[in-house]
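FIELD: query
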Amino acid sequence: MTAVQTTTTDTAAPAGGPILINGRKAVHIPLETAIERKGETITAVHLMKPLAGDLRGMLLAELLQYKTDAVMKLLPRITVPTITEPEVSNMDTADLVTMAMEVAAFLTPKAVLESLQQ
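FIELD: result
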């Protein structure tokens, strides 16, 4: 298994703060229900901001509408550690919704997010 270098852009960044993984913005997602994998327990994942290639064959509108099939197809491409399709299928729905919300936030232009916060 290869180690993924995880660095924060600010050493004092709080949990959920800005994180870079292989140069990509990411967020830390603690799981409500751990994923069991061959003697390993995954209690949290990092969700990387999707690149255009990660979105290949997908409709952006479906991701922004939290369509389950679309989110389930994308997650194995952008999670660290990588969560497999069968693991995503068995994931707690609360964890799936949390990740879907983060995906939508990644896809929303920064100016739109800023205008919503005002």
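FIELD: remark
The CA atoms of residues 90 and 109 lie 31 Å apart.
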